[in-house]
Design goal:
Length: about 160
């Protein structure tokens, strides 16, 4: 079933991951700090570009992030133009960043209090795995959220499992 997806972070991993979600037929809106990368992505794949993470997340049922580190993650989630300013109740937030357990717990707690799902889902497989849609995803979160998001995660992975 087609759904609205936001993907924040179009680096060497996120760019192809978002592409696989688009190729699977989902409506993808992307955001990247370097606007030219988002423009390049929208020329290569079917989807839209947003000016901020909040704009990308506004109508999304599933919001993915794949950014550099904890500070980047805080900026795109809790920041002034962050995802959590516009995220809809009932949506699922999936973080593919390899970030600390501290921020993963902070995000999960915030999600629970605000009525949306949260999955901590770092990926393994490197750039080649991302480009080939063959990543392994190690997922922490609630089973219900995993079940809702699994088919979207499957777009760019060959193996994923809930562990938390």
């Amino acid at each position: 079933m087609t759904c609205n997806v936001a993907f924040i972070g179009l680096g060497v991993m996120g760019y192809p991951m978002a592409g696989y979600i688009s190729k699977a037929g989902h409506n993808v809106t992307v955001f990247n700090r370097t606007k030219s990368k988002a423009e390049k992505w929208t020329n290569e794949y079917k989807g839209k570009m947003a000016e901020t993470p909040a704009e990308a997340a506004k109508d999304a049922e599933y919001i993915f992030t794949c950014v550099g580190n904890d500070n980047d993650l805080k900026e795109v989630t809790f920041g002034e133009n962050g995802i959590f300013k516009t995220i809809k109740k009932g949506s699922v937030y999936i973080d593919n960043t390899t970030a600390s357990a501290t921020i993963a717990r902070e995000i999960h707690g915030y999600a629970k209090k605000n009525g949306f799902g949260s999955l901590d889902a770092p990926v393994s497989g490197g750039q080649a795995g991302a480009e080939n849609g063959a990543l392994t995803v190690m997922i922490g979160g609630d089973q219900t959220d995993f079940d809702k998001a699994k088919d979207k995660i499957d777009c760019y992975s060959k193996k994923n499992e809930i562990t938390w």
